[in-house]
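Long-time lurker, first post. I've been practising inverse folding by hand and with some scripts of my own, and I keep getting stuck on stretches where the structure tokens seem ambiguous. Below is the full token string for one chain I'm working on. Before anyone asks, I'm not after the true native sequence, just a reasonable design that respects the backbone. If someone could post their per-position residues I'd love to compare against what I wrote down in my notebook.
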């Protein structure tokens, strides 16, 4: 957004959909509305998958990033999202957050989008953990990490939030994870070491690189709302668009298996 973070004013979308496919379709449906000029304010939302689910990036190659045999043995489904970035694992204890922003004059540069989205969230999260002697930083292009206050080295930075975006000419979808009380061991079982990584990771395996925040879902949702000035509740969802996108993409094995 062109205004500073303090000037954010957005709607908070209250919606609980039964499947991850529908949740992903909702994000893209809201992006369609923003791009088509049907939205005036940004829309902010948060959701949590009811069961462990692997979500691969739009351009992810399945066999490079996931262990298919482990997923099958553990009953973990695999779906594909509309945004870039690497594979994540969702489920209870991992809060997903999304911000969909209309840009009538055209979307800004990618780095500006990352900064506009992550800076206010980072500030709110940092304030929430500071009294515990912890700090929140942004690392890589779109990660948020937790570290001990005073420890500046990369080895002390452990990731709890990975984020991705999809940009259209007149709208931006930005969404990502907030690990809070998640089974990180499951991630190690179903994901391979990523084919690319930020320098600060230093080849650490998932179990040594990832961390839970431990703030609780209500606190995290309140933090997301404050970060983006999402004071007005919205309850209507673009049901027809969601159904179409599930039918055309997210519910189709050939969409998930295409790479």
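-- Answer (accepted) --
I ran through it position by position. Result:
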């Amino acid at each position: 957004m062109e205004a500073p973070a303090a000037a954010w004013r957005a709607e908070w979308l209250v919606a609980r959909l039964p499947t991850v496919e529908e949740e992903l379709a909702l994000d893209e449906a809201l992006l369609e509305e923003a791009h088509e000029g049907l939205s005036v304010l940004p829309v902010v939302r948060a959701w949590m998958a009811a069961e462990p689910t692997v979500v691969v990036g739009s351009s992810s190659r399945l066999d490079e990033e996931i262990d298919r045999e482990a997923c099958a043995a553990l009953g973990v489904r695999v779906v594909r999202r509309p945004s870039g970035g690497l594979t994540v694992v969702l489920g209870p204890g991992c809060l997903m957050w999304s911000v969909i922003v209309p840009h009538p004059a055209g979307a800004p540069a990618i780095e500006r989008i990352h900064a506009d989205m992550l800076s206010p969230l980072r500030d709110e999260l940092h304030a929430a953990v500071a009294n515990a002697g912890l700090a929140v930083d942004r690392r890589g292009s779109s990660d948020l990490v937790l570290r001990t206050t005073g420890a500046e080295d990369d080895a002390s930075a452990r990731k709890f939030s990975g984020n991705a975006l999809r940009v259209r000419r007149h709208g931006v979808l930005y969404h990502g994870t907030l690990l809070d009380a998640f089974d990180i061991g499951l991630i190690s079982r179903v994901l391979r070491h990523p084919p690319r990584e930020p320098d600060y990771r230093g080849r650490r395996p998932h179990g040594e690189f990832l961390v839970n925040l431990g703030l609780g879902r209500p606190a995290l949702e309140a933090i997301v709302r404050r970060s983006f000035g999402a004071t007005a509740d919205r309850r209507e969802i673009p049901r027809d668009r969601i159904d179409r996108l599930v039918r055309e993409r997210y519910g189709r094995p050939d969409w998930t298996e295409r790479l």
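A couple of notes from the structure itself: The two ends are 33 Å apart (CA to CA). Residues 5-256 form a domain with the BirA Bifunctional Protein; domain 2 fold (CATH 3.30.930.10). Happy to go over any region you disagree with.
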